[in-house]
Amino acid sequence: MKNFYLFIIFFAGLSVNLIYGQQQVAEIPGLMQYIEDRAEEWSLNTEDFSEMGISDDYISRHSGARHLYLVQQYQGIDVYNALKTVTFRPNGEILTAFTRFIPEIKEKVIGESPALEPETAILNAFSNVGIEASLTDIKPVASRSDELIFSSEKFSSTEIPVRLVYMAKEDGTLELAWDLSFEPTDQIDYWSVRVSALTGEILDQISWTVKCNLSAIPQHRHDHRCFHSHSQSVSGKTQDGHVASQPFFGAKRLGMVNEESAYRVIPFPLESPIHGDFELVESPYDEEFSPLGWHSISTDGSTDFTHTHGNNTITFVDRMGSGSPDFLVDGGADLIFDFPFDQDLEPQDYQEAAVTNLFYWNNILHDFSYAYGFDEASGNFQQVNLSGSGASNDPVRAIAQSAANTGQSINNATFSTPPDGGSGTMRMFVWTSNSASGSLLNVEEPIEIAGQYETGTANFGAPITLDPIIGEAHLVNDGVGVVTDGCQSIQNIDEIAGNIAIIDRGICEFGVKVLNAEMAGAIAVIICNNRAGGIVSMGGGAVGDQVSIPSIFISQEDCNIIRQYAGEELKVRLQLEDIPGPAEYDASFDNGIIAHEFAHGVSIRFTGGPSNSGCLVNANNGTRSDGQQMGEGWSDYFSLITGIREGDSKNTNRGVGNYVIRAGTEARGIRSYPYNYNMNVNPVTFYDSYDASVPHGVGHVWGSMIWDLFWDMVDEHGFDPDFYRGTGGNNMAIQLVMDGMKLQPCNPGFVDGRDAILAADQLLYDGENQCLIWNSFARRGLGWGAEQGSPFRVRDAKESYEVPPSCLPTVKVAKEMTPLIEAGDIIDVELIINQHRSPLETNLEIRDRIPTGATVVISSLPDGAIVDGGEVVIQIEELAFNQELVFSYQLNSDPTMISSLHLIEDNEQDAIFKWLQSNTVGSDEFTLIENNTFSGEKAWFVPNTASSNDQTLTYLTPLEIRGSFPVMRVAHNYDTEPGTDGGLITISNDGLESYIDLGYAMFRNEYPNRIAGNTFSQGNLDAFSGSSDGWKKTYIDMTDFLGDDIFLELRFGSDDNNGAVGWFVDDIELFDAVNYQSEVRVVADQEVVASAFASGRGTIVEPQLGVTTEELSASQPGLKLFPNPTNDRLNVLLEGMGNQLVELVITDLRGKQLYSKAVFVSADKQMETIGVYDFPVGMYQLSIVGETIITSERFVRLD
């Protein structure tokens, strides 16, 4: 009966919330009009935003900005994570609006009332994480707003709120679901789960606990581990001498304590014991940000503490992982926390010092982040919110040496962040290794490459120990495809047996490779990265538990060094380094890791609003199709900005976790590269996110970008040593990043994050730093024109190193021409000019050369434009800053200049006999289909299945490349898994011995995306990946292969994760192209200040079968070139031109002018000689431009 009344109250609450929420939204001035004006841009119809609730609404005290988070609803029920983030300037004007609303919501909804009780949903969620409970273990507690509250004391340490939401599924539908969260009593994860309210199926599950562990290599220590246990007595001493006061959460509360306090710690801003000495720091709290001090939760002194408990954090040691303190660390009435630390001892011997340092730094981070806007209203962690804003009762529970006695939780640190009002939980673990990737590989011979090499390790097979494994190293050969990938049975057993195998990464799981080597008799395996980048740790996959030999991982760069000696007396040794000192280090003294973990709480509370902890989950929870989750980047940024030492510069190496991995102060820490502005030291760019691990590797890319921004701001505005209230570039950079998180959308991608920081600069500094910010991001590939794709994918993005035109202080010009015509058609020309130069350039003149073979349609010229010396000339007396002018005119093309078609393969007749289909990997293949063609009735198609494939389709007839401008044109249509599966167009010009990827020669509809290195077992490849949105024609310049007989090959690759439709290929044409192309120049005071060519090689004439360029050239009177080809001099015979002044112009095939000479022709035949010995080898075009004639001929310069 009680449950029945709870349901009545619950559904009544939904109705009230719907009405109240809509009233609140409607009352915000200008909001609905703003949304309506942008609905089409966001692909929303009126019904999609007719119901909206307010998730959060607060004002930032430092900027006056209002942050409004709207949630999309259907019949009063929230759509999970469908948030619109709206930021208002202090004057009420809308600054930005980022949306995650779902279009056409009404058509996508499944279910309007639950068929499953919430208690059953809880049981299903429990079961999904290994908890076996019954209905008797779940008790209803209350109903509040739109939530039902349950408890399960046996299995959850927190109450279990349950509410109805609509959950977006992969098929695009929205299913009614129970949204619930719980923190298991015996797990470190804090689970947030969506359970179908119709079927009970788990639709979505994420952990609010962010883990930062590395699969670190074990190290031998001289000392043995020993565990001490603490009894939890009420008073007196425990068995090992630690003072234990009252139970932690029920400690005696004193009157108002002395405001003075002292803590022996590694003080802010020092990062760890290797960065500086312990100091006794006195009264470090900030009175504005912690007005109650660090040990009180009341204003009248009635609830003060003498141990590590206060308004901002409750800090304790919990070596058994029970969730309760082992004992209290008490500073006495004078609050003196002065405890010894000895690095030679084990962590259990200095627990009080660990708790003290962890308590101090959590409070420092509270005050530091408060200074930059992480206050009560925005969801910070406090027991009492004196401002009355935000939810209270959520101080950070900071746990030192968490579960250290269990031996299970090591080399890790975590932070759990429930919505505002629920305490964040920070767990610091002990670390047992010196690095996530140490030096386990020693090359002993040959002497030229002898030495240690950095390695990653495997979490399967035998470990590397103090006992050396020594042997010759040989490359494997499995006889299939990439023969060194070890994905099939090893063929060269005679070389591998009894030795160490070298295997390339890619195609199959690490466990398969190592097992195949073990079956061939290998004693150990070295896995080589097949792409540029850092070291990774290896998982065993499906067969890893069958492996019994050790394996290590090395970088592509190192492998390239050693593999050249494989099989030629390459002798290596695998051995664990023997390191003296304690068996464990305590992360409670690595202040960089503490700051990193705390920042997870900041970024999660900022993004999507403090009431939503699910807006930084676009890592896809560890599945292969990972997203652009930047949370690790913001957390690394916190580590860096809170650990700046005197003398640091942009080129100082900074690592994260250097202390716990026992590295030096300038080591790379737990990342692939150290943080450093110098790209020779830290070379990561947006492209590296394609193959980076998620979230840590992707986060490192983002962290590198915003760390660059930090130093660019310091260079521009200086460094202020006042961390809390300074006004220097360092303070400004921190504020930009903090406010950017408030502005960005739920589940942001890289472009979202960049744009939010740009908007924050508009808000905070009136846009003063726009170009500085653009330049910072552009240097690592997130510039103007970068594409994010889906924030849930890392491999559908596209990098750009450009900045907006307004950030280049120059005059700029662009040119566009009709891309494709029939001979004799009109060509439309458009010229766009901008001015971003200060002081302004004046008296500008646009000079656009008339392409050879074309004439100007005089009537189409803009007012005041003239034709002068073969150029269209436009005078511009004045062009204001940031002003854009567009001029258009038309050209007549020559009806006799026709591209000559040499081949068209339309796959209509006997195509099956003209092509050879082959599979290197997998069983999928190219087949002829009839249901999706560009022309005719047949096309080739290869499916994109969720399986590993590498297949080719080779045209069996060699194609001769001839003509002046040979072009291959391919009609195709693709829809593949972005960034992972895709197609290549390659050719062989050496009789099928090797193949050349034609991506570099494509000039229209070229490869759109980078592709993962393991797709074709090659790094740094572009491919036709993602969606072409229908049939497209790709144009390829074949000039580099003039005179060659080539074989054409289509190649398609995929991995074993997520499929799509596939790749259709139809008409393939080879023709000698006629194109109209020329350069437009902007001249000021007789100096060229800007120039450009039309994109896509200008205008191309549609080819016709049976017409040759040579025939057309012969029909043009007046010009002969010889010798052709030539290597030094070119003779130019001018015939029948009469008496006129002409200009001889030589251009390359892109239209760039290389030579010009004015000649007066006075005879019927006149010879001119031009020296071309300084020209690079290649093809060129010589044009004659006169009053009555424009003609051209091409020639070749040879060595």
Count of the separate structural domains: 8
SS summary, helix count: 16
Range of helix content: 10-25%
CATH topology of the largest domain: Elastase, domain 1
Supply the CATH architecture of the largest domain.
Answer: Roll
Strand content: 25-35%
Supply the helix-strand structural class.
alpha+beta
The main sheet comes to:
11 strands, mixed
Poorly predicted ranges (pLDDT <50, ≥5 residues)? Answer: 214-258, 621-625, 1107-1116
Shape descriptor reads: globular
What is the CATH level 1 assignment of the largest domain? Alpha Beta
Cα Rg: 35 Å
Total beta strand runs: 64
Distance between the termini: 96 Å
Mean pLDDT: 88
